């Protein structure tokens, strides 16, 4: 059994070139992939590239319980990411922090300002029928009759011409009319008959239900007192109202003037919109419009509500697109819109049409968010941090190299070559992981890479010291390398396992930029194992055959005399003692 074992060992020792060729092929393949992907440099995080970091805090609406959960937070992350990337902002980062915070990192770019505005609008999206609208200022007297014009937008089926607004002009907003409209809407909501929505007409008879009348009166008071020209009042309008209940809201008309609304229960939700886009209309009146596609259920809901609204007079033939309790558009309809698609046209320019399309496509978040903080990092500051990190890394590498050269002499060539291979693999993988998994090199990640220099150097030192121990025992270099490797291998694996475990725990329990440090530390620890096994050990085996190292040259770092080696271990035959009597 001893002979085969010796043969396998000899074969393994005589072919270290295979491992070196394997790692060389891996480096060439990864480098080629990096250049083919077009990402020749690592993707920089916001602290190095500059940009804006926004912290959003999720909150439960009144009446909601446990809405802030992991599922809804992950859904919100995906929607916000699609909204920001839908604006053409490249490499935006959206991630959760803790149980109720979302961090949005927007790198500096051409659409950064617009992205910030849309991220701040965290987007609960509903389609509600318009019951009443009036000028945005509060109504001083219930008998007064201020009026406000419709925004002029119109909703039609794609390709179908639309009618002009009703000749009835601006709707009356007297307190009496408002009360009848709201009461009728509440009564219609409680009725099981499909045609009950027609009772939302201003001439409808008030409900005889005391609770319904009280709710209508309260909503009327809120509408009368609402001042949409006041920022604080706009923010509180409709706060805490459930989608199935009527509400008040504010919005701007086509002239940019604030107007206030009483809106019916939400008939279509943002999740019912499959997609929307802004297009330039070259067929009819030239101008921008927004086209919408609905899901199957959304198509049925939209056809039902537009069919009911088409038979009504202005403004009750309008539906309001409500985003975060604010009306962003209030198009009117003149027929039931079926077929699963529709378009909104009116006084759009390219920017406003694209904004509305983006909100319709990506705006339906399952939670309400409030902006906690906004931090802006300039590119100049990021460049300074990157430069400082690179300088720190260069100093660290220089100190390690000086130590290796002084203490290990010729062996330092192996260590330096291994460090270069490890650095090349780290750089290439970081460049590839940017587009692949969204990895961004931030300042903590740079710190992780610097710490990894020490971890990698420690592996070389363990191996070299094991070799020296064998030489001190009187062995020559080649057998010393092979005997030292199993012992060094165990130590290196245990040490790297502890480092990787610490990095994994740190990555799991932390959030944000600290994860960059943990990820880089874990990645470089794995690469240390690869480099030591496939490069350092095979290279040491090859160099042990060279006379410079095998003879123990004084500059090889393996001089037996300098290491205090024992005399060579040799087997000698001693003569058997002779019995004097026999002699």
Keywords:
583 residues; alpha+beta; five-stranded mixed beta barrel; four-stranded antiparallel sheet; 17 helices; elongated; disordered N terminus
- Determine the structural class based on helices, strands and strand pairing: alpha+beta
- What is the arithmetic mean of pLDDT? 75
Shape: elongated
What would you report as the Rg, rounded to the nearest angstrom? Answer: 37 Å
Strand arrangement within the widest β-sheet reads 4-7-6-12-11
Number of helices: 17
Whole-Å distance between the termini? Answer: 44 Å
**Tally of strands:** 14
Measured as a percent range, the helix fraction is 40-55%
Report on the biggest sheet.
5 strands, mixed, barrel
What low-confidence regions span 5 or more consecutive residues with pLDDT below 50? 1-12, 142-152, 157-205
Strand content range: 15-25%
How would you describe what is shown here?
The protein starts with a helix and ends in a 20-residue tail after the last helix. Helices cover 49% and strands 15% of the residues. The chain is built from 17 helices and 14 strands. The strands form 3 sheets. It has a 5-stranded mixed β-barrel, surrounded by 4 helices. It has a 4-stranded antiparallel β-sheet with strand order 2-3-1-14. Helix 2 runs antiparallel to helix 15, helix 11 packs antiparallel against helix 12 and helix 12 packs antiparallel against helix 13. With 583 residues, it is an alpha+beta fold.
